[in-house]
């Protein structure tokens, strides 16, 4: 009798993670679990290890101790800079990453969801900063990720626009069964977006987690 197939991993699990860079312990013995539909906000002063931890979660950077187990499936990221392909339209930037039989239809639907139904034909150079970030958000979620990494995507925008885009992203995430890790320098933003809030103190690696 054959063994049953292994159960798919759905949670993000950090198990006794320690991160050391340039001889400094940024994070020591961190354990936590983020489940689908939950957002973990990560805050801390500059140099505390927020980006280092995000890179470890993404698999781009190794841990010095402990392990990171990511949910099975695709990973998407939303950065401070939209990082759109400048030679393609907004629509094409999204449809390129869509799996499935109807990528063009999916791109249209996501442009509608972020309020850009009439701008799909425009290249990034003809979009405002806020519009470009909306396209980047649509592109990230159109990939149907199981893990979404959000790295201070609104810090370069004025506060009213940042607040509007943050509310839009939160509304989109509300009906997505995705694990989200959201790095921010703004404690108020962290409180608004998160189910779990991890604050990194930096060297010697202390931290605290609010649930």
Question: Your description of this structure?
Answer:
The chain is α/β, with parallel strands linked by helices and 211 residues long. The chain has a domain at 9-71 and 182-211: Rossmann fold (3-Layer(aba) Sandwich). 30% of the residues lie in helices and 27% in strands. It has six helices and nine strands; from the N terminus they run βββαββαααβαβαββ. The strands form two sheets. Strands 5-6-7-3-8-9 form a six-stranded mixed beta sheet, sandwiched between helices. Strands 2-1-4 form a three-stranded antiparallel beta sheet, with helices on one face. A hairpin with a 3-residue loop joins strand 8 and strand 9 (206-210). Helix 3 packs across helix 4 (129-142) and helix 4 packs parallel to helix 5. The longest helix has 16 residues, at 159-174. The model has no long low-confidence stretch (mean pLDDT 90).
């Amino acid at each position: 009798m054959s063994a049953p197939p292994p159960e798919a991993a759905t949670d993000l699990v950090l198990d006794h993670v320690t991160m050391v860079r340039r001889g400094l312990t940024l994070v020591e013995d961190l354990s936590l679990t983020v489940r689908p539909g939950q957002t973990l906000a990560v805050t801390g002063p500059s140099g505390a290890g927020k980006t280092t931890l995000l890179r470890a979660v993404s698999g781009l950077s190794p841990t010095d101790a402990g392990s990171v187990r990511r949910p099975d499936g695709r990973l998407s990221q939303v950065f401070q800079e939209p990082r759109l392909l400048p030679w393609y339209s907004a629509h094409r930037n999204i449809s390129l990453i869509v799996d499935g039989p109807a990528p063009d239809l999916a791109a249209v639907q996501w442009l509608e969801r972020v309020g850009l139904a009439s701008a799909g034909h425009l290249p990034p150079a003809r979009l405002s900063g806020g519009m470009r970030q909306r396209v980047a958000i649509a592109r990230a979620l159109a990939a149907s990720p199981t893990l979404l990494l959000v790295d201070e995507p609104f810090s370069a925008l004025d506060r009213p626009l940042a607040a509007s885009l943050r509310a839009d992203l939160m509304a989109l995430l509300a009906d997505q069964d995705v694990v989200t890790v959201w790095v921010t320098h703004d404690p108020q933003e962290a409180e608004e977006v998160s189910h779990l809030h991890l604050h990194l103190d930096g060297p010697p690696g202390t931290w605290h987690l609010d649930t």
